[in-house]
Amino acid sequence: MRYGHFDDERKEYVITTPKTPYPWINYLGSERFFGLISHQAGGYCFYRDARLRRILRFRYNNVPADSGGRYFYVRETDGDVWCPSYMPVKSELESFECRHGLGYTRITGKRRGLSVELLAFVPDGVDAEVHQVTLKNESDKPREVTLFSLLEFCLWNAHDDQTNFQRNLSTAEVEIDGSTIYHKHEYRERRNHYAFYTVNEKVAGFDSDRESFLGLYNGFHEPDVVKAGKSRNSVASGWSPIASHSLEVKLAPGESKTLVFLLGYIENPKEEKWEKPGVINKKRAKELIAAFSTPAQVQAAFQKLQARWSGLLSSYKLTSGDEKLNRMVNVWNPYQCMVTFNMSRSASYFESGIGRGMGFRDSNQDLLGFVHLVPERARERIIDIASTQFPDGSAYHQYQPLTKRGNNDVGSGFNDDPLWLILGTAAYIKETGDFGILDEEVPFDNDEKNKASLFEHLKRSFYHVMENLGPHGLPLIGRADWNDCLNLNCFSETPDEPYQTTGNRVGRTAESIFIAGMFVHIGPEYATLAERRGLADEAKKARELVKKMSDTVLEHGWDGDWYLRAYDFFGKKVGSKECEDGQIFIEPQGYCSMAGIGLESGHVKKALDSVKARLDTKYGIVLQQPAYKEYHLELGEISSYPPGYKENAGIFCHNNPWVIIAETLLGRGDQAFDYYKKIAPAYLEDISDVHRTEPYVYSQMIAGRDAVRHGEAKNSWLTGTAAWNFVAVSQHLLGVKPEWDGLSVRPCIGKDIADFTIERRCRGATYKIRVKNQGRGGKVSLKVNGKPVPGHLVPYAPAGSTVDVECEA
Ligand code: BGC
Ligand code: NOJ
User: What is the pTM of this model?
Assistant: First the structure.
């Protein structure tokens, strides 16, 4: 069942009913000011950091779901009250439509012939959300309504806002100036920032105190003020500050009216905080308000936003006969990559914005799907991430976006983390040719007195693995590797002990075959970088170490038909036929296969055949089998989940693309594409009632076949799935991949997709690639500008040039 449709022309997903199986979300903003908005106008926004600079309040686990957001209430003279977004009042609408587009959302509701449209977006380079509201009288009678706006402010620190009630019931302060409500909580002391909500017209009234507006025992669906039809002009003092305007709107039949509401964030230099004692300096706010006081200004900013997105997306353009593939590759997958790059794992409808911040491994992987969009931002991100690395090569697992400092609560000890920095940096250099980044002086642990070149950081990443080998010569897992829930040193028997940071028995025995696979896959990138810096001996040494690790995997990490997952604290195998549950895991099959460990000797083929036989399901490849039936002290969180959910045999979408990529290595394009389609959201649109999350973005997990609710997805948007699927589809299935010295063109997508074209921008040149596809499994013949070239590499052309590539595949 569907709840809407794709509008490919406008690059929008159009939701046609408010009653989707879950709130379907969009993200606004691209650099500093971000908002989340659901199809019912729910959600919140923040400046740079969802924990430390939260602007709107949002209640997780709330009842009903998705309440609180940017609301507009329409009150008719006869007392009828409704919202164009349906929520929170839930008066039935004659029509409803929500168009989620690239960086904007347009929600239109109609009742009794009056249509009200909300267009919400964050203009480029501006720290504000525009809410443009257009009322249109489509009936044949004159209409008179009162329009009420409402949003609820958060007291900046989202954690404090939800916990520190002995303080925060007394601290809120506002100022009212004409149509503008200023939220100046804590401005009197250490903060130099405030927010405001305004509208470009004289208001009939306003409210800034939640209780006065709603009534203490009322929900958002029944505000006293809206019922009464008259604002109370309340001025908040302590308690919960809100911003609400009321405006009288009169419309002749066919007439329409557009209002511009603006929710802005302002920082003042310390010495310019005050206009006069106790009165905030509003100069910057007034400038911002003036810049968005007419619909024409809004329109211009909106067009700029759309033009920027068209530009961004033109760096990889597919034209094929499969419209679902086109919309994933051209619009929605890169869009999600942008959002995961911006947010890492910090703020979504499932990440409260309080806990996780930017993940070290997550951000490096997010880069892989983003780097072709805005390489300069990827560069900055690499330096930020590397600055949180410790001198011994280990890394903070997470850092806060605002401070860019490592998070001490979570600390380090996830032994896969360091290697991802090599992968992210290599992807950036291949995309840009900017080897100079390796010479950047980057601090360790943000200590300006302890700096080294980025190359030195990568070297320490590489050797961190070597310095932490276990009894079989395989990498020690530490607290966990990619699989945060495989906690082999945790041994937790006490509720509330966090699995990721508890080490009740810390030994140097538990080993990860997954990290070994990563080392073999990523190590050669380090060796190449060393070589290009003239360090031939270092490169040779690195290659030998990689070769040795590959041999070690075949000797100690192979279980007969697939790669083992790990050795536990006691040296017992994990992911082996010898185990009762958890006999085979996807991660090492994907990663060791991508690394080509035992490719010639048939190990890769065997491993991938085992994946097909044991892990494949109708809705995707599950993480492991059989699911753990009971809690295993020696394995940790993985066995804490009921069978079929999350890491305990759920379809963890992030690692499916590793298998897809590995299949293309074997030339099995049909199988690879089949796996791709199983989890790609556009292909799941028809089963939205089963899948439940948005049909335009990936979710972290789809419940596996052991689960009661097989096929049901959870935790959409912020997941490494976005980047890895983009890598899989763009670089391996469609086969256009930047390498050190040229663009590799080697499609392997099976026979279902006939001829297709790709336009790829790279290093300033444009490559127009026409593929005649007969499904030759990665075997290609190329002509570049009409001349045959051997192999699959199109040499890089000078910036500004256009290269014509013909490919038979
Ligand atoms: C969750 C995992 C998740 C991890 C991220 C754990 O508590 O259960 O699924 O990957 O946190 O840090
Ligand atoms: C989500 C985390 O963000 C990611 O780092 C991890 O690899 C997966 N969960 C798997 O546990």
Answer: 0.97
